[in-house]
Design goal:
single chain, mainly beta, Immunoglobulin-like, six-stranded mixed sheet, 1 helix, globular, secreted, EC 1.10.3.2
């Protein structure tokens, strides 16, 4: 981003008396100029789990984002079985174009932005795309162990379904709040939403796909 101004939004953090650290461009602060720096300082209160951060200038957030993980305070514990390990799963979108150019074209024409060319998991489109066949995201697990997946929908415009082949997911948190656990085989996350799930490797040892798919309805219906 050598020619772009930007700022960082801590998405979902309750900014209590620290509104200037929220990050919206020209709302709570001026953009950070190329080559400049800015230190965000705020205190997180009453939130545990998964949130995320992203650039908050035009569509730079299409590629500039990451997980924001809030662990229990020192000496505390999870209100569920302690996982063997934790993994952040960030679902995103990829355009074969400059995302800034995509949104500018939409602004000029008044049409909706062009849909993305691929969906990604932790920045990789998966082995169905030649460009990333050697860089597919792999999450190693040991047979029988229970892990915590912190799933974030980092996409700009799409609700996304997420699942792991042949496995159940126990939802234990959403948007940095614990929830009453329930079990499902598929998650549906809107843009910006996060969900924490426990998954137990209780199937025969093998490779199992993680998959994300866009929500779509009324395909082919007359307008």
């Amino acid at each position: 981003m050598p020619k772009s101004t930007t700022m960082i939004l801590s998405h979902g953090v309750r900014q209590i008396r620290t509104g200037w650290a929220d990050g919206p461009e020209f709302v709570t602060q001026c953009p950070i100029r190329p080559g400049g720096s800015y230190t965000y300082r705020f205190t997180i209160q009453g939130q545990e789990g998964t949130l995320w951060w992203h650039a908050h200038s035009s569509w730079l957030r299409a590629t500039v984002y990451g997980a924001l993980i809030i662990h229990p305070k020192q000496g505390g514990s999870y209100p569920f079985q302690k996982p063997k390990r934790e993994t952040a799963i960030l679902l995103g979108e990829w355009w074969n174009a400059d995302p800034i150019a995509v949104v500018r074209q939409a602004t000029r024409t008044g049409a909706a932005p062009n849909v993305s060319d691929a969906y990604t998991i932790n920045g990789q489109p998966g082995d169905l795309y030649n460009c990333s066949s050697k860089d597919t995201v792999i999450v190693p697990v040991d047979s029988g162990e229970t892990n915590l997946l912190r799933v974030v929908n980092s996409a700009l415009n799409q609700e996304l379904f997420f699942k792991v082949a042949n496995h159940k997911l126990t939802v234990v948190g959403a948007d940095a709040s614990y929830v009453k656990p329930f079990t499902t085989s598929v998650l549906m996350l809107g843009p910006g939403q996060t969900t924490d799930v426990l998954i137990t490797a209780d199937q025969p040892p093998a490779r199992y796909y993680m998959a994300a798919e866009a929500y779509a309805s009324a395909q082919g219906a007359p307008v």
